[in-house]
Design a protein that fits this description.
Rossmann fold, 6 strands, alpha/beta, 33% helix
């Protein structure tokens, strides 16, 4: 009988406990795709994970999301990490440039990010106020120590060249993941081990 090899992630090596905030996208929620799995994995390492629910698609606007965020009463500091999917990164940029932040947050992980219209009649109307919001890139970069962006080469919603507009503005290289689709469950992303590994690496201080 062939013995199975089980690979376990060591959850005991992180030095600093962090607050990780998960920001979903349009038509999304914090209970879908890899969000629940990531939350469980990070909490098992002793970290605090916050996954707010934002209005979508009904009543979705930048102002309604700002109000939903305000209701959370979250303080951003050097132990904060953002993780955003799809529209989530655009909202993260808004928070980084408008929230009072005494020290830069630790990191922002951006999955399938975009700044422009997607030429999709379902998404462009609800995304309108977000992508029309001016971004002060200098302020955004000053308020976050590390940015990482994950881009798929076959995303059916966010073409790779649109995601690369984000990485160009941040002056970082995108992490291109082959065949990841939109990094959602229909593309096989009920789990996201690469993302978890790199979050833990940042917390360990090795990146």
């Amino acid at each position: 009988m062939q013995r199975k090899t089980v690979v376990k992630i060591n959850h005991n090596y992180t030095k600093n406990m962090a607050t990780i905030i998960l920001i979903h996208g349009s038509f999304g929620n914090p209970e879908e795709n890899w969000f629940p799995w990531l939350k469980t994995e990070l909490e098992s390492s002793g970290h605090k994970v916050i996954a707010p629910t934002f209005p979508t698609p009904n009543n979705q606007s930048l102002d309604s999301w700002r109000q939903a965020w305000k209701n959370q009463k979250i303080i951003l500091d050097q132990d904060t990490i953002f993780v955003g999917h799809s529209l989530g990164p655009v909202f993260i940029f808004d928070l980084l440039q408008n929230q009072q932040i005494s020290n830069p947050i630790k990191a922002s992980f951006l999955v399938a990010p975009f700044l422009s219209k997607l030429k999709n009649p379902d998404f462009d109307p609800v995304n309108k106020t977000f992508i029309e919001n001016p971004i002060n890139w200098q302020t955004v970069k000053q308020n976050c120590e590390v940015f990482k962006a994950y881009v798929s080469d076959n995303d059916p919603y966010v073409p790779m060249e649109i995601s690369k507009e984000v990485t160009t503005n941040l002056n970082i290289n995108p992490i291109i993941v082959n065949g990841a689709g939109h990094f959602n469950e229909s593309a096989g992303y009920a789990k996201f081990p690469l993302l978890l590994k790199e979050i833990l690496s940042v917390l360990e201080g090795s990146q």
